[in-house]
C-alpha cells in the first residue's frame, strides 16, 4: 500500500504545482485595453465552443454509458471467471469508471484551454518587456495543461484502483486472496480509459475541424485573395482562427494526452498482473509493487517535468528553442533516473536492469521520432526544399511533391518502431522471467511517456505563443515592431515544438498500441478461461480474422476522409462569409483598399465554424465507435466449436492492422502538412523569389511560386491539424473500446 | 492427360485467333500521309522506349535469376521434403521457369504495344467512315493484347507443367507416384509467376512514369499556361504524351494482367493439390483433373472472350459503351457457363455446385467493384460534383475534397471484399470436403478472372482510341470536325473502360491475394515437413510477425511515394523544355500567338521522358524486390526452437498487411485521380461557368474554377496512372516473390 500512497501523493503534488503555476501566470500583466479586448473576444469564442462541444459530447457519452451498462448487466451472461461476482456489479464498475474517465477528460481539456486563453494576452504583454518573460509565461501556461493532464490521469487510475481495492477487501491482509483480487481490478476499471478516449476523440476531431476550417478560410481569402498578412485585424475570420488554436491545439491535445496516459496506465497494469502471476515466486510476495510499477514510473515523470519547467529561462540573445531543449533534456534525464530507481525498487535487483534498458529503448525511440520529424518538415533539409522547388512549376507539382514526401517519410519511423518493439521484447525475454517479452514492450512505452508532462507543456506553448503573436499583430504590432519581432521569434519556436510533439505523439501511439493489444489479449484470455481456450494468437490467415484486419485499415482511411472533408466543407462556408464581407470594399490594382479604421464582423465567422465543427465531428466520431463494435458482433457469428474466440480474434486483427495503418497514415498526413507549411515559410524567407516579385518599374506583384506554396500549405492544414492528430486518438480509442467491450464479443 | 491436351489446344487456338485479329487490323486503311506521319512518330518513340526499357529490365532480371540460382543451388541446403532430389535440380527448374516467365511477360507487353501503335492510325482512319469501323478496329486491336496475354500465360504454365510432368516420369502410369510427383510440380515452376511479375512491375512503373510525366508536362504548360487544347500539334510534348498512352497503358497493363493470370494459375494449382491430397478418396483417382481445374476454367474463359469480341458492333446511333457492354455480358455469361461445366466435369457431381457458386461470388464481386468505381468517379454522381463545387474556392479546396473522396471510397470495396472472402470460404467449407474453405476463395478468384481476356481488350481499347483521337486532332481535326466528334465519342468511352478495368484489376488483386498467400502457407508447410511444424497460423501478435506486417504497410507507402515523386521530377523537366520552346513566341493578352504553321521540336520531350522514366523506375522496382527479401532474411534471425518458422510467418504478415494496405491505397489513388479527372471534365461540359468566362464586353477570360479543377486533374495523373496501377502489380509481385523465395526464409 506504500506504493499507492506515494502515487496519490505525487499526483496531488502535481495538481498543487499546476495550481501554483496558474496563480503565477494570472499574476502577470494583462497589457493594454486593446490587447484585453482581443483576448476577451478569443476567450468568449473559445468558451462558447467548448461549452457547446461538451454538451454534445456529454450526450453521446451518456448514451454510450447506458449501452455499456445494459450490455454488461443484461445482455451478457455472468461467467465463472468474471472479475466480479455478479453481472450487475461488473456493469456498475465498468460504467462508473467510464463516466469518471469521460468527466476527467473533459476537465483536462477544459483546464488546458482555460489557462491558455488567459496566458496568451499575458505572454503578449510580457513580450513588451523581454523574450524571457513571454517565454516563461507561455511555457508555464502550457505546463499547467501538461501537469494537470498527467497528474489527473494518474490520480484517476490510482484513485479508482484504491477504491476498488478497499471495497473488495484488499485491506484484510490475506495475501493469496489479495493477489487474485488485485490482478482483476484493472479489468473492472478499463472503462476509465475508454471514457477518456471517447471524449478525447470528439474533442480532437471537433477542435481540429474548428481550428483548420477557420485557418483555411482566413488564409485563402485573407492572404491569397486580399493580400493582407496573417492575423491582420481586417480579416473577418481572424478571431475564429485564434479561437481555433485554443480549442483545437490546447483542448484537443490535452484530452488526447490525458487518454493516452490513462489507457496506457491501465494496459500496463493488466500486463504487469499477468507477469506477476506467471512469476510469483521470482517476484516476491507483493503483487501490488509490480502492478503499480507503471504508475510509480509515471509519478516520477511528473516530478521530472516540474523540475524541467522550472529550469527554463533565456537571456533574449540565444534561440529560445535552446532554452526549451534544456528543459526537455533535464526532464528526460531525471525521468530516466526515476525510471531506473522505480525498476530497482519494484522489480527487484535481478531483473531491473533489463526493464530499465527497455525504458531507455522507449526514450531513444521518442528521440528518433523527433529527429525524423525534423528532417522531413524543416526547411534546412532536402524534402522541404524539394517541395519549394516544385512550386515553381505551379500548385499541381507542389502538391504532387508534397504527397510524395509525406508518403515517403513513413519508412524510417517504421524501421525504428520495428526495432524498438523487437528490441524491448528481446530485452524483456532476456530478463529470464516467464513471458516477460510483452512486458518489455510495455515498459518501453512507459519510458517513452515519462516526460509526457513536459512534452505537453511544450506543445501547449505553441498555441499560446501563436495567440500572443496574433494579439500583438492586432494591437501594438504596427507601432512597436520590436514587440512583434519577439512574439514572431516565439511563434516560430512554437511551430517547431508543435511539430516535434506531433512526432512524439505518433511514436508513443505506435509503441503504446502494442502494449494495449497485448493487454486486450490477456483480458480475453482471462474472461474466456472457463472455455479452456486462450487467445494466444491472432491468425490473420483465417478469413474472418483477415477481414477484421481489412476493416481496421478501412476505418483509418474512411475516418481520415471524414475529418478532411469536414474541414473542406466548413472552410468553404467561411470563405463565402469573408468574401461577402469583402465584396463591398473598394479595389485598386486587383488589391483591396481597406478604408481607414475598417473593422470586420468577427462574430459571424466564429458562429459558422462553431456550428459546423460541432455538426461535422459527429460522423467521424461515431464511425470510430461503431466499426469496431459492429465488426466484433458480426465476426462473432462465425464462432465454431473449434474456434470459439473468432470474434475477439477478428477484433484483435482490426486493432492491429488498424493501428499499423493509422500510424502510417498519421505520419503521412502530419509530415506532408508540416513540410508544405515550411516550404511556404521557406519561400517567404526569401527563397525562390520570396513573397512578392518586384518588376523593373518597381511595381510589386505576387510571386506565383509563393502562391503555389500557399495552396500546398492550405491542403496540409486539415492533414496535419485535423486528420493526423485525430488518428492518434483513434488508434488509442480503438484499443480502449475493444478492452471495454471484449467480453461482449466472446 | 486429356485435360492438359485440351488446355494446350485452347491456348494455341487463342494465340491463332490473336494472329487472325492482327491480320484483320493490319488490313485496314492507314489514312492520309499526315496521319501516318504522326503515327510513325508515335511508333518510333514507343518502340525506342520499349527497347531500352526491356534492356534495363533484362539486365535486372538476369541478376535476379543468378541470385535465385545461387540461393537455391548453393546457399540453401537440400531438404528431405524438397520437390526434387537435389538442390541443383530445384535451382535449375526454378531459375528456368523464372527466365521463361520473364521472357513471356516481355513478349506479352511487346505484342500488346506492337498492335496498338498500328491500330491507332487505322482507328483514326476508320473514324472517317463510321463509328462502327473505328470501334471494331480499336476493340479488335485491344483484343490481340487481351487474348495474347491470357493465352500465353496459360500456355506457359500448362507447357511448363507438361514438360516437368514428362521429364519426371508422369507418363509411366504409376498412380501413387504420379499423385505425389504431380502435386510438387507447382512448387518447381513458381518461378514462372515471379519472372512474369518482376517484368510486369518494371514495365508498369516505367510506363506509368513515362505516360504521366509527358501528360502532366503537356497539360500544365499547354493547356494551363498557353491555353491550347489537348493533343494540339503546337504542343512540343504532344507526341511524348501519345507515346505514353502506349507504353504506359498498353505495354504496362499487358504485362500486369499476364502476371496476374500466371501467378493465380500456379497459386490455384498449389491449393488444388493440397485439396486433393486431403480428399483423395472423395475426389477420385485423378489428381490431374483437380489440379488442372483452374487452367481448364481459364481456357474456357478464352473461348468466351473470343466470342465476346466478335459480337461487338454498333450502328453509330447508340452509345458505343452499350456495344462494348453487350460483348462483356456475352463473355461473362459464357465464361460462367464454362466454369460450371468445368466444375461438374473435374470436381465431381457431389461438390461442383458449391464451387460453381464460389465462381459466381467472384463474378459478382467484379461487378460490384465496377459499379462502385463508377459511383466515385463519374460526374453523374455526387462525389465528383462535390469536387467540382469545391473548385469554386480555388485549387486548395479542390485538392482537399478530392483527397477526401479518394480516402472515403475504400469503404464499400472493403465490405464487398470481406463478404466475398468469407462467403466463398464458407461455401467451400459447405461442400463437405476437408479443408476446402481456402480452395473456395481461390475458386472465387478464378471466376472473377474468367473474362480477363475481354476485359483486357476493353482496357487496351482506351489507349488506342485516345491515340486515334490525338492523331485526328493533329491532322484532319480542324477541317473535318465530324471525324473528331466520332473519335471524341470513342475516346470518352475509352476513358470509361480504362476506369472500370482499373476497378476490376483492384478487385481481382484483392481476391487473388488471399489465394496467393494461402498458396504461400501451403508451400511453406510442404517444405518444412521435415521439421514437423506447419505454418498454420500467421500470428500477428508475435512481435516479429507484427513487425513483418508493419514493413508490408511501409512498403506500400514508400513505393507509392517513389512512383509519384518520379512523375513529379520528370514532369518538371518536360515543363522546363516546353517553356523553353514557347519562350520565344509572341504573346497577346497573356496568350501565346502561334505563328502560322508553327511546328515544335517533339523529339526533345520524347528523349527527356524516355531517359527519366528509365532512370526513375529502378528505385521503386528494386524497393519492391528488396523489402520482402530483406524482411525474410532479417526475421529469420529470430528463429527459436519453439518457433522455427518465424521468418516465413513474418513474411506472411508482410504479404497480408501489405496487401490490405496496397489495395486500399490503390483504391484511394485510382479513384481520387479518376474523380479529379471527371470533375474537370464536368466543368468543361459547361458546369460552374465552363472553361472560359465571357465578360460583358465579350472578352473571354479563363474560368478560375476550371483552372482549380485542372490542378486537381494534374495531381491525380500520377495517382491513377502511375502509383495506383503499379500497386496492383506490387501486391501480386509480393506474393510471387515470397512464393519463390519461401524456402530461403526457412
Topology at a glance:
The structure is a homodimer of 746-residue chains.
Chain A: H1 2-26, H2 33-75, H3 87-126, H4 131-167, H5 175-226, H6 238-278, H7 280-283, H8 287-311, H9 320-347, H10 352-377, H11 382-390, H12 395-408, H13 411-430, H14 437-449, H15 452-474, H16 481-527, H17 543-583, E1 587-588, E2 591-592, H18 602-616, H19 618-635, H20 646-684, E3 692-694, E4 700-702, H21 704-745
Antiparallel strand pairs in A: 1-2, 3-4
Helix pairs in contact in A: 1-4, 1-8, 2-3, 2-5, 2-6, 3-4, 3-5, 3-6, 3-15, 4-5, 4-6, 4-8, 4-15, 5-6, 5-17, 5-18, 5-19, 5-21, 6-8, 6-14, 6-15, 6-16, 6-18, 6-21, 8-9, 8-14, 8-15, 9-10, 10-13, 10-14, 10-16, 11-12, 11-20, 12-20, 12-21, 13-14, 13-16, 14-16, 15-16, 16-20, ...
Question: Can you describe this structure?
Answer:
Two copies of one chain form a homodimer. Chain A contains 21 helices and four strands. Chain A has 746 residues and is mostly helical. In chain A, the strands form two sheets. In chain A, strands 1-2 form a two-stranded antiparallel ribbon. The model of chain A has no long low-confidence stretch (mean pLDDT 89). Chains A and B meet through helix 5, helix 12, helix 13, helix 16 and helix 17 of A and helix 5, helix 12, helix 13, helix 16 and helix 17 of B.
